[in-house]
Amino acid sequence: MGQKDYLTGKLEELKQEYKKTKYNKATNKHLSILRAKISGIKKEIIESNKKIKGTGFFVKKHGDATVGLVGFPSVGKSSLINLITNVISKTAHYAFTTTRIIQGVLNFNNAKIQIIDTPGLIEGAHLGVGNGRAVIAALKIVDLIAFVVDVCNISSLDILITELRGLDIYINKKKPDLKIIKTDSNGIIIHANKSSMGSETIKMILSDFGMQNASVSIMDDVDENEFIANIAKKAFYINAIVILNKIDLKKNYDQIGREIAKKYGIKVVPVSTVEKTNTEALKRELYENLNLINVYLRPKGTDELNPLIAKKGVTVGEIAKKIHSDVFNDLRCAYVTGKSAKFANQRVGTDHKLDNGDIVTFIKE
């Protein structure tokens, strides 16, 4: 057995011991030691997986929104980005064709959507296998993750979600409502706890972070790992959909898609990059799941309409800032016509939330 296999086996052994150990005052110290050992072995595995640093893993956001394509090697991510964007990415009938991040732009409904094709992930990616940590880290800038899954290997989705969670990326989950306020005395006071963790576990974790006195409120169910990620401010919450590719190989792909949607509570879009099936439907789903809206700016005294893409729930003030800080600073109010207005040319303030298709006229001081 090699050193890497030994470390992987030892890590699993410690995880099982940790899982089986009940939380109480008598086991607090033992659990803290186990956590430290698990963390130490993870670092060793990550170091052993490190290779010469590659290129192409820094991504700068541009356009109106960013989508990250994530999947196993050879699931068709490169063919997909070629199909829906203006880029040509290398494709081949063997694994690991894409060894760096490829970027393209999808133009849809006035929006410029940045699409990034990431190198294939494999099991153990969050521990550095196949340079997986660098790939997953790059995904933390995206607005939507699109899992590209081979219709003949749907079990890969479980692995992909687990690997992302290993680096604190949580899919289709709202950020939990938890508040931790440091205090000067009285120890750890838990005012509300709707999580699956017991009070002793919460106190033990906070103690590991050097917090001996704090007021705690947890209004959502979070497990220990997610709680720790939030305390460390390393948790990311990103929406996701599944692109079920190669449906030309399975007649019952609709049934497979429904099973995935039911199991994971996730939107599934069946496609075939070979036969170019459902390409337009995919573009529409990407746009809609990014929660983008069209807002039209109409300068005072004209009938000219200038389209602008924004996130759903955007305010008049945020639109003004997006154009330029001077526009916001000079803004007194706005006239809005559309779904968000009670009547045409309603006078509103900077906090007014806009809806798709709204027409806005800024009024300066």
Report on the structure:
Helix 1 runs antiparallel to helix 2. This protein has helices at 3-20, 28-49, 77-84, 132-138, 156-166, 199-208, 224-231, 253-264, 279-289, 316-323, 325-329; strands spanning 65-70, 102-108, 111-117, 144-150, 169-171, 178-182, 188-193, 214-218, 236-245, 267-270, 292-297, 306-311, 331-337, 346-348, 359-364. The N and C termini lie far apart (75 Å). It has three domains: 65-173 and 235-289, P-loop containing nucleotide triphosphate hydrolases (Rossmann fold); 176-233, no CATH class; 292-364, Beta-grasp domain (Ubiquitin-like (UB roll)). It is α/β, with parallel strands linked by helices. The strands form three sheets. Strands 1, 2, 3, 4, 5, 9 and 10 form a seven-stranded mixed β-sheet that branches. A five-stranded mixed β-sheet has the order 12-11-15-13-14. A hairpin with an 8-residue loop joins strand 13 (331-337) and strand 14 (346-348). The longest helix is centred in the N-terminal third of the chain and has 22 residues, at 28-49. Residues 52-56 and 92-97 have low confidence and may be disordered.
